[in-house]
Amino acid sequence: MELLHIPHSPPLRRCSTPILTPAFSSSPSSSGESRWTRLKRAVPTSQRRQEGQLKGLPLRPRCASSSYPTPASDVVELPLFPLPLVLFPGAILPLQIFEFRYRIMMHTLLETDLRFGVVFSDAGSVAGVGCVGEVVKHERLVDDRFFLICKGQERFRITRLTQTKPYLVAEVAWLEDRPPPPGAPEEEGEDLEVLATEVERYMKDVIRISNRLNGKAADKDEGGGAAAADLRRGLFPTPFSFFVGSTFEGAPREQQALLELQDTGARLRRERETLRNTLNYLTAASAVKDAFPSSPSSPSSSS
Q1: Where are the domains of the chain?
Q2: In this structure, are strands 115-122 and 76-83 parallel, antiparallel, or unpaired?
Q3: The CATH number of the domain covering residues in 3-175
Q4: CA–CA separation, 118 and 130 (whole Å)
Q5: To the nearest whole percent, how much of the chain has pLDDT over 90?
Q6: 92-140 per-position pLDDT tens digit
Q7: How many angstroms separate the CA atoms of 22 and 5, rounded?
Q8: Who wins on pLDDT, 152 or 19?
Q9: Cβ distance 12 to 124 under 8 Å?
Q10: Are 192 and 237 in contact (CB under 8 A)?
């Protein structure tokens, strides 16, 4: 994993006083509905729609003079948000912005392109590869805080930090997956559709056994039954590999490694291995649970 040390900048804070926090705990409005609920209601339930298919969201048109061109363009400058998480293309990220320097950034973004770079931060360093987050919905509060709904877009590699105060700005180069080079090992030439189908099958098995261990019925809301019938939902292998990586919550370093790969096949193979190991662990845990079921509590005797 590529990490860049940030000179002349205070350590990036996590957990207790984060720069940005998910907006799940936002205070309710007078109607009893939280701001997060109001924002979330506008976001489609699937994170995996292609760009331009976000129904119900008034996407702001990109300015003609925007400094963030398409991925085919040369190196450009991008403001950065270091976070203790990894954003993938196509994923939805809710954020609350309250720190002064990032409120300054938001005022600038609202007048331009509404896009910024999300980079994984750890122990005062930031990863060298990140993902563009585009603001698709925002709410500005009276105290100048912001609630945001962002969607992951292009990946990028930081080539040079150009500004560290009041917030980070970097020159970045866009990243795209590349086909295996000629003469690559046979494993690297695996059919991507076959790989994606295998990964989807492992995901379904992991969901099924995990739900069983947790005593959850297989239903549409919990990822079993009809909901797990088609996890891909028509996605091509590359965006599907990003979706799978986004589900590995709690393992940001593994997610970062997946984000940095520029080979869809390599990403799917790594995800397949992770899911296979997870499935083996859950299967063993399920067997132990079946062999040693919890004994029902004995009824208390009446005196």
Answers
A1: 3-175, 190-289
A2: parallel
A3: 2.30.130.40
A4: 6
A5: 46
A6: 999 999 998 989 998 888 888 889 999 999 887 899 999 999 999 989 8
A7: 25
A8: 152
A9: yes
A10: yes
Overall average pLDDT of the 265-277 stretch: 96
Q: Is the whole-model pTM more than 0.85?
A: no
Instruction: Supply the DSSP string of 289-300, one letter for each residue.
Output: HHHSPPPPPPPP
| pLDDT exceeds cutoff 80 at 163 | yes
Secondary structure percentages of the chain, helix, strand, coil, to 5: 30, 25, 45
Q: How far is CA 56 from the centre of its chain?
A: 21
DSSP E strand stretches across the chain: 3-5, 20-21, 76-83, 92-97, 115-122, 125-127, 129-140, 146-163, 169-175
Q: Which residue has the tokens 């500004």?
A: 163
Report the C-alpha gap between 155 and 261 in whole angstroms: 10
Q: Residue 27: name the closest of 149, 134, 143, 136 by CA.
A: 143
Cα–Cα dist 264/245, whole Å: 12
Amino acid present at 10: P
Structure tokens at 9: 């900048």
Query: Which of 51, 258, 22 lies closest to 153, judged by CA?
Result: 51
The partner residues of 264 in beta bridges, in order of sequence, read none
